[in-house]
Amino acid sequence: MAMQTLKDKKIWITGASSGIGEALALELARAGAHLVLMSRNRDRLEQVRKACLEYTSVCLVQPLDLSRPDTMDEMVTRAMKQMGGIDILINNAGQSQRSLAKETPVDIDRKIMEVNFFGVIKLTKLLLPYMLKQGSGHIVAVSSITGKFGFPWRTAYSAAKHAVQGFFESLRAELKEDNIKVTIVSPGRIKTNISLNAITGSGTPYNKMDSGQAGGMLPEHCARKIVKSIRQERKEVLVGNQELLMVYIHRFWPGLYHRLVTKINN
Asked: Which residues are marked as active site?
């Protein structure tokens, strides 16, 4: 199995200010990668950058709001001038949801789709030409196991992650002859603030830690598994604990999946 080195690779990470993104930044910094850290929170990014510079000599901070695609073109041009290239793009940023479909206005659905799908593919399409020009690259899409099956209270989020799955599976096939790899990562329960920062049907933060989230895999462990999958140039990887069984239950025993998922109320 291929094991690519990450030392001196130019790697861009979205959602790098906390959670999985922050853990990825530190793990990749330890591997000697040159990093561009992106998220909406510049102050937190600066803190992550400071930690990363203990291990790597290059770590840039670039504020990025995936819900504002009009700002991306200038940001990419500016960051490319600073970095001089890109080897790996990790699309990690996203926002979850905690609301019933019947209580969620369409504008909230659109907001979830903008951040988790349209913003992701806009950034990917802006950086893809640079990879095509240099004749190599690796795109990593951090999806979710809810991109594999539907889940209550997350209708728009699950829909966006299904869209991510379909887009990047298709993109992988299209880029086969261009020496650009695509890895889709589907995490399960990871102990991050994703449920705290999820939005409700009213557009306000959910501000609660899900019990499953609280007992989930640590983001540092998740990051190590993702980095390993990048080194191995894996096409797909599931990351999590026992909740990953639902992927296989949905695939092979859909009746049992339906009985289980309808009992979930948060």
From this structure: 157
